[in-house]
Design brief:
Helix content: 10-25%
Radius of gyration: 16 Å
Shape: globular
Structural class: alpha+beta
Strand content: 35-45%
């Protein structure tokens, strides 16, 4: 199986001058409906590197998943992380941008899958079923393991800035 490539945008805001919060989404669909820890994700999506620039893909995927445009501002490169995803590996590239979006404004994209399994019936589910702001410690618990390094990189960047 070939590696997959994804790109995403991690929006962050500073509260009361010091506390940093990030905007992440709970993965939609029946597999994650009753899960919380490890069931949240940075808004991201797959792209084909030979056909599309990673930053353009990150912007497009943010809009597709949340129905909102990424906030204007400087994009901070957080680099790549490679981790297991399903039966293969995935390389994810993420940028952070400071902004303050309202989770109530999110209109998630949808995907279709056979549900229940082997039923022959297709059902539609939101890509992300809810979005919220979390401090870095809470977000670390909620994000899937492979995406957690991006939080550490953001924290390091902000402490050096």
């Amino acid at each position: 199986m070939t590696d997959k490539t994804s790109a995403g945008v991690l929006v962050f805001r500073r509260r009361d001058g010091a506390d940093v919060e990030v905007l992440i989404g709970h993965m939609g669909g029946p597999f994650f409906a009753r899960k919380d820890s490890g069931a949240w994700s940075i808004p991201k999506g797959e792209y084909e590197p030979e056909l599309e620039d990673a930053r353009a893909a990150a912007s497009r995927e943010f809009h597709e998943e949340l129905g909102l445009f990424a906030p204007p501002g400087d994009w901070i490169p957080l680099g790549d992380v490679r981790y297991g995803s399903g039966k293969g590996k995935k390389t994810v590239t993420v940028w952070a941008v400071e902004g303050d979006l309202d989770p109530a404004d999110v209109v998630p994209g949808t995907f279709e899958m056979e549900w229940p399994p082997r039923s022959g019936r297709m059902a539609s589910f939101p890509e992300i079923d809810r979005v919220d702001w979390f401090d870095l410690v809470t977000a670390h618990d909620k994000l899937g393991t492979g995406q957690r390094p991006f939080l550490d990189r953001l924290k390091d960047y902000l402490s050096e800035a």
